[in-house]
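LOG
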Amino acid sequence: MSNARTNEHGEADTGGTSTPGEPVRIIAGSGRSGTTWILDALVEANELRPVFEPLHPLAVPEALALAYAYLRPQTTHAAAERFLSRVFDGSFRSWWTDYRVRPDRLSPKLSELRSISAIHQLVRRWRKLLRQYRQFAPAMRRSRLLVKFIRANLMLEWISSHFDTRIVLVLRHPGAVVESRLRLGGEDWEPQQQLAQYLAQADLQQDYLFKYTDFLQRPLSAAGAHTAIWCIENQIPLTRLESSRTAVAFYEDLLSGEAGPWRSVLDALELQHLPPESVLMSPSQSAHRTQQGRFDSAQLHRWHDNLAATTRREIADVLRAMDVKIYDIDDPMPRTAVLDGRWQRSAGWTR
């Protein structure tokens, strides 16, 4: 790790900037939608440098005011433009975006190290950084970028209007997303605070949330709040983004391992090389395969079986109340026929 330099902000800096004249390539989606798997598959196949979740508010201090923000395309936001310009030109570096380790967890306060278990945890974190550094350091020397966001869905239209972008919006069944978030828990997946952050944004309320104010002001369970978050984060870009520079990719299609959906993603991002079959058969957050390694569509229901019937009903109630028609709680596959005509399923998307 001695090769890594740090800039004036204490960020890891190993040099390298993006290739001039190339579009900004973005993978975006709600957290737990398979975006990391897609990022890593495309990065290795096309020799790109991954930029991992630059809007994480706890890992990247500059992103604190931008994470989960709703920005109208005509809005002037100098701080967002400055920060994202650094992200997109490759000059922004940090332990998190480069090596996926939160720097705030590497230097805890002495008061937090008063037990043997806390010390062991700190040692594990530094060992993880070493492993991650060894894994990702070669890619950090590349100049062509692929940026992965899970907290930028509501500013994608703004990003598209201010930068030359090619965006793939990844959708995964809200039931699967909610099940994963409930199972993981932790501060990253605390739904009430995130939902409150959305409800507090005046422009978002005026442009979209006003339709659901009465419903969202009711007490919601954790599952209900997670589902409402999914609706907000995905309904808005589906109705606002220009399909000429954006493709919608369904996790369920990509999970099949068929080449068609992946080639559509490549076309959308102006990339050439399909990930190898071994990568396509190994999604990072799921193992929907038979013992022989073949895709088994019945396994798409695994998240459904992991949720209690009452939880499934709560999710269905929120989807219905917030006018989501593309997914149904009892069908693991997207209902793409209900999409606006300008959007086509990832398997058939053409530029």
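LOG (cont.) second protein
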Amino acid sequence: MDYLFTAESVGVSFRGVQVLKSASMWASQGMVTSLLGRNGSGKTTLFRASVGHVSRDFGTVHFQGQSHRKPRLPTLAQMGLFFLPPSGILSRRRPLRWHLAMIRERYRHEVRKDLPAELEADPLLDKSDWEMSGGEARRAEIALAWTRRPVCLLADEPLAGLAPMDQDRVAGVIRQMADEGCAVVISGHDARRLLDLSDQVIWLAAGTTHGLGTPDAARDHDQFRREYLGPGV
């Protein structure tokens, strides 16, 4: 399979403790890939190392046919990558309308002029982050990603802490972005929902990753079920 984005054999240590030993993740055009693992397994570290927010001991990022030994998010973003961290990306004092204007000004012809109706973002246009609920802020951030029209979306726990209705809205737009050709990697702990959303699954455990294939194949993987999914998923 051809991958639009890969972070290969990434190693990361903090204060002498090796968090990632040899971890990889990949994104395929038109597909949603779920990165799953227990709390503290290093999923956020792998995301952050892949965009240059964390120093790596080793490993290489490949995006759009180019290798990046020292990836930098501004460079990757200019090439069409959108990174959504769990901490959010909205300015505390600027309204959503301002954020949309900045994206449309910077990227001009690459952006969308509409917003997906299911996000119900129009009532949020004149709200800033501190005026929004957690669900509203995440819907606003996904609206920014939608507007940017990225070729690759890396979203670390985009459904975390959301009410079921907001999870449905955000997941639906992520699925639509993938169906239109975006290469997507997401993480989270709502395994049932993420498996339903995904086309392929990566399992991060003990500092390394395992490509499990399709969600059905992941559900049938004995060790994955025993050590991560548990019964009933």
